[in-house]
Amino acid sequence: MTFRVWAPAASRVRVRTQGAEHEMTAGGGGWWFSDVPAPPGADYAFLLGEDGTALPDPRSSWQPQGVHGPSRVYDHAAFPWTDQSWTGRALPGAVIYELHIGTFTPGGTFDSAIDRLDHLVDLGVTFVEVLPVNSFDGTDGWGYDGVLWGAVHEPYGGPDGFKRFVDACHARGLAVVLDVVYNHLGPSGAYLDRFGPYFAGQNDWGPGLNLDGEGSDEVRRYVLDNALGWLRDFHVDALRLDAVHALSDRRATHLLEELAVATESLSAAVRRPLTLIAESDLNDPRLVTAREGGGYGLQAQWCDDLHHALHVALSGETSGYYADFGAPGALATTLRQAFFHAGTWSSFRERTHGRPVDRSRLPGHRFLIYLQNHDQIGNRATGDRLSASVSPGRLACGAAIVFCSPYTPMIFMGEEWAASTPWQFFASFPDPELAEAVRTGRRREFARHGWGEAEVPDPMDPATVERSQLDWSEPGRAGHREVLELYRALIALRRSRPELSDPWLDRFAVRSQGSCLVLDRGPLRLVCNFGPDGADLGEPAGSVVLSWGGATAGHVPPDTFVLIDTAG
Predict the structure, then answer these.
(1) Which Gene Ontology molecular function entries are recorded, alphabetically (predicted)?
(2) Which of 62, 175, 258, 526 is most open to solvent, judged by the fewest CB atoms within 10 Å of its CB?
């Protein structure tokens, strides 16, 4: 096979494989090549300079010995796919389920996750979003400290394991979203800078990529090829792009737009929809505006403003970035326009923030709405879910708003049955100094917010991972079973009543009425009571489609909701 690696400043490059070292030949643009007999399964590594250390391939597809070990030759064409009839899914009308492979099941592997996919089908989910599966140092972690972006984490099952998972999802009609991280690299095993000018500065999480400086053409190509590889070689249907606001790119054509163009071309070639979903803190609708309209052309973005407004309404918590969302009418305002901060003052940032969404042009399905996600749970000191502090009635109201809104709903694993298990921050770096630095940093961070050190779980303790695993006996228990039945009913309604999946924001009405929040979706009216007293709606108009906690068409007790068909 032909080994190739980009190392523009190297004076000499060798490839070591099957017990021998082979000289590589310099080609154009800083690339080095060598034709060496190496079958699939052969280990290899690159040596830079005269006395270079053996390093894994930056474009490795397989790292069975971890991020510091040699790469292994992998043949993508050898996998026996069975999804030839899969035509994909478009995002409009979708219901997304976010999960972490390592804690979704006690087994913590792709194969054990496959055993639970029928639960998602029964729930009504259409897209499964998987937290990052790229290689990171250690066995357990969230996946956001990856350093070899094209190699699947071996403890989960490696590249074949991930392909089995995707294939099994497609067999059940489930599309797969993969979370990818291009804004930084993790603290252990990030060898890219030894090969070339990959890095440019630091952000809050680690070294950032050189996207616009000298040598950045090949760095950008590295990102594009990685993204397209997941979509093409692993048959993934969508990518969730982590924290794109941390991508530093001053070029006239932003990397995100370049990725959107390349993805659209690949979509035409493979003849199935391919979707890009950004996580962005910018509140900038240009990300999800079509390129014809002057935007970047991404299909959707996470919308934390919608989460924050819902979280405050349900929990009453107004510290930190939740402060502005405690304003009167904040929930109705945010539901109406997607962004609460839309060129308005943000007290958390101490400046104006965001830009308005054109409600007549941008459909709601381009914004994801959720009560919980991995960040909003896991980045709390104890990883506590909403169900740990919010009544079942309030949770039910929140779920009703999510699934009756014009936005794309997303569920975090276990939310659908009000899981009692937390989801905490964890890692497993083998380097004791790095492990202690992460442990100490985590405790100091929360100490500034009034938490005692003993209250913050040790991220390096295997017990932290075990606590974060879902308890699959809960869905059948009282108190959890009823919440699961509600989620199934809400998703089924969203699928059966086109008014609920209608994405057009200018046809969506929401208002505060006393202690109640009222959503009008055509003839359907959702009334949620967040106040301490019951709310009388007057003469019943129409028929009850769904209710919770004893609410009727004429009366809604506290922490209950009713969905009424005013035409029926």
Answers:
(1) 4-alpha-D-(1->4)-alpha-D-glucanotrehalose trehalohydrolase activity
(2) 258
The span from the CA of 15 to the CA of 372, in Å, is 46
pLDDT at position 236, please?
98
Q: Is 21 helix (H, G, I), strand (E, B) or coil?
A: strand
Longest dimension (CA), the chain: 86
Distance, first Cα to last Cα, the chain: 68
The C-alpha atoms of residue 139 and residue 156 are separated, in whole angstroms, by 9
The arrangement of strands across the sheet holding 560-565 comes to 509-513, 516-521, 524-529, 560-565, 543-548
pTM comes to 0.97
Cβ burial of 49 (10 Å; 0-12, 13-18, 19+) is middle
What tokens does 440 get?
Answer: 């100490």
Residue 105 has pLDDT above 90, yes or no: yes
Cα-Cα-Cα-Cα dihedral of 317, 321, 327, 331, to 10°? -80
Helices marked H in 300-371: 304-315, 330-337
Token pair belonging to 485: 């039945």
Provide φ and ψ at 508, rounded to 5°: -115, 130
Active site (annotated) includes residue 242: yes
Give the integer Cα–Cα distance in Å for 229 and 421: 35
So what's the pLDDT on residue 452?
Answer: 80
Q: Which of 379, 422, 427 is nearest to 137 (CA)?
A: 427
What does the radius of gyration of the chain's CA atoms come to, in whole angstroms?
25
Q: What are phi and psi of 525, to 5 degrees?
A: -130, 125
- Annotated catalytic residue, options 242, 416, 502, 559: 242
- Decide: helix, strand or coil at residue 163: helix
What is the phi/psi pair of residue 300, to 5°? -165, 170
Mean pLDDT of the chain: 96
154, 109 contact by CB (below 8 A): no
